[in-house]
Input
Amino acid sequence: EDQVTQSPEALRLQEGESSSLNCSYTVSGLRGLFWYRQDPGKGPEFLFTLYSAGEEKEKERLKATLTKKESFLHITAPKPEDSATYLCAVSGAAGNKLTFGGGTRVLVKP
Amino acid sequence: NAGVTQTPKFRVLKTGQSMTLLCAQDMNHEYMYWYRQDPGMGLRLIHYSVGEGTTAKGEVPDGYNVSRLKKQNFLLGLESAAPSQTSVYFCASSYVGRQNSYTFGSGTRLTVV
Output
């Protein structure tokens, strides 16, 4: 059974204070690791897909990295508009289904 | 706008009542999914469909039924609602293929009293 654990559950940052979110996973035959952003009252919004260890993807102040056991989402010099819940998910060999972690709620104060 | 549309957005049910949640997508996606999201539990897969006329159970299917009569629509039914089914329900769809990123709807907030 695929499992995803995210830490910390919540993160409070000052504007400009860089930090990292962790996503640990166990999966049979990783087909992809996904990061989503979710704003209150809305559905998750796709950010990145990572397919193999060593891969990195960047988008504005966000950078996602992948190892064989975990992924990190680095937030560099965050702004208040980066406040959201960030979700990690994996797709394994079982098929086209995503297993999600519990998410990390990020609050960036000005 | 193209995407995934869920109706209704909010609903309050009494225990034992039934209802159907509708999900419609206009992206010609093959795969569709129903998830529920609860505090501290993350998103959990209820049922999914890999094509018109097909459905399969996910992680938490008990108490729910689904139908995919048309490729663009995926219906989630609650035959006899229970307070434990109070949750936010999200529908998603995706293409078949390697980059199987989902497109999510905006959710249905259901309260069962």
Remarks:
- Chain A has a mean pLDDT of 94.
